Amino acid sequence: MAQNVTPPRGMRDFLPAEKARREHALGVIRGVYAAHGFDEIETPVMEDSSRLHAGLGGDNEKLAFAVMKRGLTPDDLASAAASGDALALADLGLRYDLTVPLARFYATHRAALPPVFRSIQIAPVWRAERPQKGRYRQFVQCDIDVIGDATPLAELELLTATVATLDALGLAGCTIRINDRRILQGILASWGVPDDLRERALITIDKLDKIGVGGVANELAELGAVTADADVATALEGLTSADWHLADGVVPPPAWLDGAAYADLLALRDAMPEAAIEFDPTLVRGMGYYTGTIFEIAHPELGYSLGGGGRYDHMIGRFLGQEVPACGFSIGFERIVDLLEVRDDARPRAVVLVHDGNVPAERLLAIKAELVASGSRVRLERRVKNLRALLDRVTADGFDAFATVNAEANGAASLEFRELTA
Amino acid sequence: MAQNVTPPRGMRDFLPAEKARREHALGVIRGVYAAHGFDEIETPVMEDSSRLHAGLGGDNEKLAFAVMKRGLTPDDLASAAASGDALALADLGLRYDLTVPLARFYATHRAALPPVFRSIQIAPVWRAERPQKGRYRQFVQCDIDVIGDATPLAELELLTATVATLDALGLAGCTIRINDRRILQGILASWGVPDDLRERALITIDKLDKIGVGGVANELAELGAVTADADVATALEGLTSADWHLADGVVPPPAWLDGAAYADLLALRDAMPEAAIEFDPTLVRGMGYYTGTIFEIAHPELGYSLGGGGRYDHMIGRFLGQEVPACGFSIGFERIVDLLEVRDDARPRAVVLVHDGNVPAERLLAIKAELVASGSRVRLERRVKNLRALLDRVTADGFDAFATVNAEANGAASLEFRELTA
What we know:
Chain A has 422 residues and is an alpha/beta fold. In chain A, 37% of the residues lie in helices and 19% in strands. Chain A has 14 helices and 15 strands. Chain A has helices at 16-35, 49-52, 74-83, 99-109, 153-168, 181-190, 198-205, 208-223, 229-240, 259-271, 316-320, 333-339, 361-373, 387-396, and strands at 39-40, 46-48, 66-68, 90-94, 117-126, 138-147, 175-180, 276-279, 293-298, 305-311, 326-331, 350-355, 377-382, 401-405, 418-419. In chain A, the strands form three sheets. In chain A, strands 1-5-6-11-10-9-7-8 form an eight-stranded mixed sheet. In chain A, helix 1 (16-35) runs antiparallel to helix 5, helix 7 (198-205) runs antiparallel to helix 8 and helix 8 packs antiparallel against helix 9 (229-240). The longest helix of chain A has 20 residues, at 16-35. Chains A and B meet through helix 1, strand 1, strand 2, strand 3 and helix 3 of A and helix 1, strand 1, strand 2, strand 3 and helix 3 of B.
């Protein structure tokens, strides 16, 4: 009997054309990152439940899919029912990001890794979010991280590798916005935001794109983070138009500007003279674990970010019991793959052999083998009455040419290929 | 504080060298299968729990990892405790094979696929097995399937593509053992095995490698499948040494031999004259869903199978509500990747730039960019006192050459590279 056969809610099947596009993008990304000295690793899709819920995943922890213990007894179930704690029945969970697994991986394998470890992770993550357009419950993240380098060279290697990757994907001309969490702290201090409200104040400022200067000022006032909202709105207005002139010696630097952090950002800008790097003192980036530089990359023709990252010097230490500097950049694979044009010259010539049922199998296979050996991709198609419909279909599938094999005809050499045009 | 940081039980992290080897193997496999006309697809790692437990997964169903419903209430927990049914708390599960998802995928997307659909699936599956050497709870399966072709051309395309893939991986010279479930049914009928015991009798015969002719004969007798064990042992002895002479016209074919099935096998053999194809009437293959041809591929120098598959004409119909012929072949990715030698010429030249901390970052990046542009993979390494140890380490990581960048030295052109030899 026919059943409901859709994939689980918020998750996707990939048909051949889409899968090919994704694999092409992955190949380009892997190749460029590897050339830039990054090494790909892989971790299991599951981590211990306690590790996923250790406070390093922010809001994503609530979205983790929990994997049930095997062999649960009625007593286990009764005990969970009594406590109301469903999570007590889970020992594993699906990862919701690649950063928690990376921290765990690094702690496990540090002795086998170079002193500065540059990792690539390209892998799916799972979040039980309310499905909506462009947001999925299984999606691929694409992270590079530099672990063990406290100098700005880490940020520079991340940024240059990312720009090169986006270039190779046909997304040249991206703009990088940068900031530093220390500068944000200076701004919050200048507004008199108490320490215990700073994390929430940052979350509010992060909504600037959505709720605007007025909205942020109001929300900060409601939080009790600032006493009056008028000055903050004016200050925010000024910050949104800030750029590198802030401390160029022509005008005195503002009191809130952390000089050391700003000098680091200037050094980053100067080391990448060909990149379009903008200073944005209102850039926050969501995660609570960032400690220094933060950055976000966008394409001027697109209304959304293509990726971002930053320095998170205290996180790896959580699993290792020892501080290790770290810095990462994640590009939005699902967004990028939608923008990608796969060039025709990036794939082999694809040909269709149309045959009627009475051509001997060994003959078909011999012709196919010869074409495969010469570098073609070959599909056999049984002849149907409506040949035009068949050819239209294989043309839509991306095939370049076809030939007809008849039972009577001579060997492969005499096959006449005709080009298919889309 | 340092924590337990191992991956979950029975699951593995892949460090850079191993990950590179796996990606290399995947690239080869994808390339050859695609050339042979197969199309890669992808499905979510989770399927609906009811679908995973619909009786199509055999013993693997019991090994499925269950994913808990989100937002379980104390009432839900109490109700599961009352019934003792833990699975009532799960709505999803991790797939334990790629065949159940393929059947579901085909039912969902049939209208968008060609009449004969040749799929590639290369993806992880999960089974909560007792971990042991060479057996993991997360491992990659690598399946090709031909859906919609009832003719032996399906088997032939699977076998030729698989042989070509193993050749390309450096595993030339494999032997294919084939059989047909109809022939096994003939053998069981000749022994008088009642219909309701046939599935269990096949499971017993499948243990021939492990428990031998005597063991199988005893177990069949214990099952009550055969009345005396002596004749069966003799018959099995004869079957294990059977080959293509069974119906060559010189001797009369045995009464149990299904003539139509045997003719199909002969046709397969004759259509692949260059392959080593052996007839083995005792070959069973585990899964209950096989209906016709079954095959297994092995390398003469290895004591284990490298893959196998067969025809399963009634399974796709379970989700579609309509019969569709299908045939598949799965190669043992985890075994194959262990055998693989990655040739040096398969990867780009890898160079290390050793620098001291006072080389300006923009200078280092410019040299790196130039080397990357010329096709090299480049890693920066900060100079340490013991340069020999550093060079030994990067040599072990597979790097080919190094150069030292000093703060005083001239531009990139003057860099002197020295080869590293392992």
